[in-house]
Amino acid sequence: MAENPIISQKYTADPNAIVWNDRLYVYCSYDNNNPAGSGYDIKAYTLISTDDMANWTDHGEVFRVPRDLSVNNQAYAPGAAVKNGKVYLYVPDGGSKIGAAYADRPEGPFEGGKSLITGNAGNNTNVPWLFDPMGFVDDDGQGYIYFGGGPSDGNPGPGQNLRGAKLNADMMSVQYPATTISDTRCSFEAAYVHKRGSTYYFSYSTNFSCNTAGVSNGTIAYLTSDNPLTGFTYKGIMLGGTNGNNHASPVEYKDKWYLFYHDRKLKSKTNANERPAGITTDGEKRSVGVDLLEYESNGNIKQVTMTNTGPAQIKNLNPFDTVRAVTINTMFGISTMASPGGNGNEGGTGKEGKQILSEISNNDWIRIKGVDFGSGATKFKVWAAAASGSSGSIELRKGSSTGDIIGTCNIASTGNWTTWSMFECDVANAAGVVNYLYLVFKGSSSELFRLDKYIFEGTAASSSSAAPSSSSIAPSSSSTIPSSSSAALLACANFPTTGTVGVEITPPLTLCEEAQLWSSRTWQVKNVATGEETTFASDGFWPADGHNTPGEFEISATITDYNPNACIGQKILCGTITISAAQNSSSSAETPSSSSAETPSSSSEESTPILSSPQSLVPSPNAPRYYNLKGEPLGTTKPSKPGVYIEKNGKNMKKVVIK
């Protein structure tokens, strides 16, 4: 069964891929509202993400105009760039101007909205179509924006209608005049730049009336140069035609190159259950796909072949981590939507909730690819909501929608669509890697239930066979995790068990996943003897009021702002810690002396030292984290590819050069 397009519950187009926190995100134009016949009415961007190139999480329409950019009435093809720990979106208002906004995470909320580029001869921005912006950040941190386009009879015409310009350090203002990109034969739209090694590749879509030798109509062509703005030379075709306009986004992820594009495969499906529910196929209803992007030994691009199967899955899914119900390989009959009464934790505006699985009817299903059950799953837990009179069941099947059943979970009414309950069932005969896992929905109601998330319990696979998400950390044997909680989702690994009065405690790992620089959480510290609980809204916590009370304390933590959003609001008991009296009563209550055993080395955090008593289970406060010069996080593994990187360990940062 086809896995391109990569999302089939919505019509999507104009992909722009970014890497954020070791995960691949793709912004897409939301095509569901385009009118029948011809034309576009695009006012939102759909965001999807993956870490395995096979199962895609639908984050919903995270950006809308005019809600997030009041100067725009339309949001045509998105441009996105990452720098300094922020995501920047460049948003064309039809073809009349380009606006910009930024956010602290891919899901938003977006702020700082402003008009960025308007047509002006003095700025060299007077192109027929002022749209299809693309943000690019070079290895030295310099940002650029590319844009433009126009019809074959436009003024300026093909070969003269695409532009590039430097962005200022804020990524929200432009250094004029813009540069006209050279040798763009039969240029139409969809300007895009990527860099491989020291070579800059400029790609664009060709028009449909090209008579230039070596250039095909309606394709993605590309140029190369050793400069991001000048000296480009035409090389050939990157991607063939797709029976209409096209838009391509090359991206490197996990040491492979991929090309995202849109075509019209989804609207051509004859079974309506395999297409977006209730949306006419008439008009511009496009769909995003992806395939491998490969290079010749001389650096030229091999023309990409568009496939139905897409690229290979690069890691197995760990079902013992909480899985969003909107994480899908392919689907039949369902839809996704923002949860009613949501708290804005996805999209971040307070006006929409997180995405949930909806419009579930009898015999609908979703499929997940490459699921590693390790030594075996024994239980399935799912969070669902069902209105009064609605109910049904979930059949867990291997291989196909009619394959062997490994468990059946009954879902009862929760009274309304906004009340969520956890339902569970036993699972049998689920071990090793299941190529395809189907959740098949059964029942007689018009809409059976809605789903938020699920998790399996059992014995996970070893890291050598199918590890959890690369940023997921399992708890150590010393952590105290309640059996009713998901140890894989909410981990407090290496949690200290002893401490000393006067020393602030900062556990090395926090909830959900490896701690991020931009994560937020609160700590709940409960005195076991008195039952009194205190909340600390900081990265660390003091075990008692006044910071001078020894005793036994029960520590819990709650995520308040995090990615993935499924973690937000979750609370878990991390463990119990015993605080003994300080050995040197003359020491400062809040700052250990320089000779204290708890004082970190120069490579540790300086302001919030980690507890380091003889009984402590914490070997070091934080593993170093690595970033490229664009500010994009690369994880905790030291990069092996040649280049210049930033290493951050606590508050210490240094430049690392890999040769």
Descriptive notes:
It is globular and about 70 Å long. It has one helix and 40 strands. A hairpin with a 5-residue loop joins strand 3 and strand 4. The chain is 1% helix and 40% strand. The strands form ten sheets. The chain has a five-stranded antiparallel β-sheet, with no helix packed on it. A five-stranded antiparallel β-sheet has the order 22-25-30-27-28, with no helix packed on it. A five-stranded mixed β-sheet has the order 32-36-35-33-34, with no helix packed on it. It is mainly beta and 659 residues long. The protein folds into four domains: 15-292, Glycosyl hydrolase domain, family 43 (Tachylectin-2, Chain A, 5 Propeller), CATH 2.115.10.20; 323-465, Galactose-binding domain-like (Jelly Rolls), CATH 2.60.120.260; 471-580, no CATH class; 625-658, no CATH class. It comes from uncultured bacterium contig00195. GO terms for molecular function: carbohydrate binding; hydrolase activity, hydrolyzing O-glycosyl compounds.
Q: Largest beta sheet: what is the strand line-up?
A: 1-2-3-4-21
Helix count equals: 1
Going by CATH, the architecture of the largest domain would be: 5 Propeller
List unreliable stretches of 5+ residues: 347-351, 463-495, 506-520, 538-548, 561-568, 583-621
Q: Structural class of the secondary structure composition?
A: mainly beta
